TrEMBL record:
Alphabetical list of Pfam families matching this protein: GATase (PF00117), GMP_synt_C (PF00958)
UniProt keyword annotation of ATP-binding present: yes
Originating organism: Lupinus albus
Taxonomic superkingdom: Eukaryota
GO molecular function, one term: ATP binding
InterPro entries in UniProt: Class_I_gatase-like (IPR029062), GATASE (IPR017926), GMP_synth_C (IPR001674), GMP_synth_GATase (IPR004739), GMP_synthase (IPR022955), GMPS_ATP_PPase_dom (IPR025777), Rossmann-like_a/b/a_fold (IPR014729)
Reactions accelerated catalytically: XMP + L-glutamine + ATP + H2O = GMP + L-glutamate + AMP + diphosphate + 2 H(+)
Function per UniProt: Catalyzes the conversion of xanthine monophosphate (XMP) to GMP in the presence of glutamine and ATP through an adenyl-XMP intermediate.
Record protein name field: GMP synthase [glutamine-hydrolyzing]
Length: 536
């Protein structure tokens, strides 16, 4: 159960995803303009598109070529439906090429493929750029090998690249538009101006996406779903997402919410004590703390595959929630019906199959926390009030709900906890204890340096390797740990954080001198993509 997109007080801009690494950015950029936006697979059936009643549909870029026989495309009847219902369509990169090809134009392999920053020139007055931009040159981010060489009837080229390739096309009378570059990325400085003009001046979109309205609507949805005598369990992880979800549900149904915090033996240094103190003193949430560390670690013994770890952890959580529900049933005389989870929109997007992959099931990026990993025979129905929100939107919602700012600024922590930060068997040796100490030194050093709020997520990783070192005039054969810190807006993409060398030197010394069993510290300097944020 989550917010119904059709209940939002904003026109919907629907993104059809064809696999571009920037697709989620389009969604975020549009929401930053207070316009509601959703992203679904570009190969979704027509009914999935029409049921959402979008005012605008944006066809994303992608790594495919329209010449490939199995290249993904929109469903038959889409263009006719859009034109018949006055829906505006904007194709970006691959999306532009789809429009051209499907409407009878011609797309060829480009003689000069264009990647990276390029200058484009607006050649004529147009709906996309207006009259004042004619003759204007702007820097954009290109990423295409094919190019449109013959446009469908009624279309005009309104901008070209410095190499002469088609950069922007439009047919305002039919409400079809196309950009061969990516306006959503920061490498296109005027891209947001173009999107803003397209949405408000060309399409006349109504902006009404606010967290105040989301809160009001979510409370309605929860009250309409949860019966007056129904009780709800909320699984608190100690993170921002589950805490905001719990606070929201508590506002809606009051004492019929029963929160549970599970110590699964995979928490950070003194996490249990710190989190419980915050719940009780600051948030005033009724929380039962369950120590199930032995139960989890017993099931995880000998398991090294990260996907199996996630599945085991998800299963054990549900077993505990079911047991907790049975205890509540005996206490209340009524069985709880629902389980609250802090699933976010990036979790949903990342659990969708990539367009053109040929898969009917997800190419798994995450299976626990929170999409996937849950048993099919789970007895509790899910409530996911944050399912359509990005992390920064959840923080906005938390502020409205008076969740303490210090809590809202906490870095994300994965549902499976340190299990995905110990590479290999989490029960082997003292890996968990070493990792807790290293992570505490790293995070506290970041806070002491005043860097915590500038970083999206920072943590340490225990590597399944040993290295030779010299400590205390003795040769050692000890563990290697990695430090990871990234900046991001929503967790969908991320850049590694650039620390000053002195900071890294100080942290490395503190770790090697203060944590027994570690003699080498390395830093992860990989962005997402190609890597994920977590190591696993």
């Amino acid at each position: 159960m989550a917010l119904d997109p059709k209940a939002v007080k904003s026109d919907l801009v629907l993104i059809l995803d064809y696999g571009s690494q920037y697709t989620h950015l389009i969604t975020r950029r549009i929401r930053s303009l207070n316009v509601f936006s959703l992203c679904i697979s570009g190969t979704s059936p027509l009914s999935a598109i029409t049921d959402l009643k979008p005012s605008v549909v944006i066809l994303s870029g992608g790594p495919h070529s329209v010449h490939t026989p199995d290249s993904p495309t929109f469903p038959d009847g889409f263009l006719h439906w859009a034109e018949s219902n006055g829906v505006f369509v904007l194709g970006i990169c691959y999306g532009l090429q789809l429009i051209v090809q499907r409407l009878g134009g011609e797309v060829c392999i480009g003689h000069k493929q264009e990647y990276g920053r390029m200058d484009v020139n607006v050649q004529r007055e147009s709906a996309l750029f207006g009259a004042e931009k004619v003759g204007h040159s702007q820097v954009v981010w290109m990423s295409h090998g094919d190019e449109a060489v013959k446009l469908p009837e009624g279309f005009d080229v309104v901008a070209r690249s410095q190499q002469g390739a088609v950069a922007a096309i439009e047919n305002p009378s039919r409400k079809f538009f196309g950009l061969q570059y990516h306006p959503e990325v920061t490498h296109t400085p005027e891209g947001m101006d173009t999107l803003r003009r397209f949405l408000f001046d060309v399409c006349g979109v109504l902006a009404g996406w606010t967290m105040e309205d989301v809160l009001e609507e979510e409370i309605k949805v929860i009250n309409n779903t949860v019966g007056q005598d129904d009780h709800v369990i909320c699984a608190l992880s100690g993170g921002v997402d589950s805490t905001v979800a719990a606070t929201l549900v508590h506002k809606a149904i009051g004492d019929r919410l029963h929160c549970i915090f599970v110590d699964n033996g995979l928490l950070r240094y003194k996490e249990r004590e710190r989190v419980m103190e915050t719940f009780e003193k600051n948030l005033h949430l009724p929380v039962t703390c369950v120590d199930a560390s032995n139960q989890f670690l017993t099931e995880l013994k000998g398991v090294t595959d990260p996907e199996k770890k996630r599945k085991i952890i998800g299963k054990e959580f549900i077993n505990i929630f079911d047991a907790f529900a049975q205890e509540l049933e005996q206490k209340l005389g009524k069985k709880p019906s629902y389980l609250v989870q802090g699933t976010l929109y990036p979790d949903v997007i990342e659990s969708c199959p990539p367009p053109g992959s040929g898969r009917t099931h997800s190419h798994t990026i995450k299976s626990h926390h929170n999409v996937g990993g849950l048993p099919k025979d789970m007895k509790l129905k899910l409530i996911e009030p944050l399912k359509l929100l990005f992390k920064d939107e959840v923080r906005q919602l938390g502020r409205i709900l008076d969740v303490p700012e210090s809590f809202l600024k906490r870095h994300p922590f994965p549902g499976p906890g340190l299990a995905v930060r110990v590479l290999g068997d989490v029960t082997e040796g003292n890996a968990l204890e070493i990792l807790r100490q290293v992570d505490e030194i790293f995070i506290q050093s970041i806070k002491d340096a005043g860097l915590y709020d500038s970083i999206w997520q920072a943590f340490a990783v225990f590597l399944p390797v040993r290295s030779v070192g010299v400590q205390g005039d003795q040769r050692t054969h000890s563990h290697v740990v990695a430090l990871r810190a990234v900046t991001s807006q929503d967790g969908m993409t991320a850049d590694w954080y650039y620390f000053e060398h002195k900071f890294l030197d100080d942290v490395s010394r503190k770790i090697c001198n203060g944590v027994r069993g570690v003699n080498r510290v390395v830093q992860d300097i990989t962005s997402k993509p190609p890597s994920t944020i977590e190591w696993e």
